[in-house]
Amino acid sequence: MVPKTKSIWLTLTLVSYYTLSAVSTVAGAVSGISFVRTHEPNESAFSILVPQGWRNQGGIFRVNAAQAGGPLNAMEAKCDWLLMSDAKGTVAFRILPDIVYAHTAIGGGFFQPGSLYQGAEVRALADAPTHLTYLINALHPNVVKLNILKIQRLPGEIESMRRSMAYSNQLLTQIGMGAMAFQCDAAGAVYAYAEDGKAYHEVMLTGIMDMRAAMTWKNTRTMAFRAPAADFERLRPIMDVMRFSIQFNPQWIMKESRGQQERGKIVLKVFDEMRRVDREMVSRTTINREEIMNDNFLVLTGHEEYVNPHTGEVEMDTDAYRYRWKTPGGDVYYTNREDEDPNIFLQRGDYSRTLIRKRRNE
Question: Hey, what long-range contacts does 318-324 have (CB within 8 A, 24 or more apart)?
Answer without folding.
Answer: 318/237, 318/240, 318/241, 318/244, 320/237, 320/240, 321/32, 321/33, 321/237, 323/32, 323/353, 324/353, 324/354
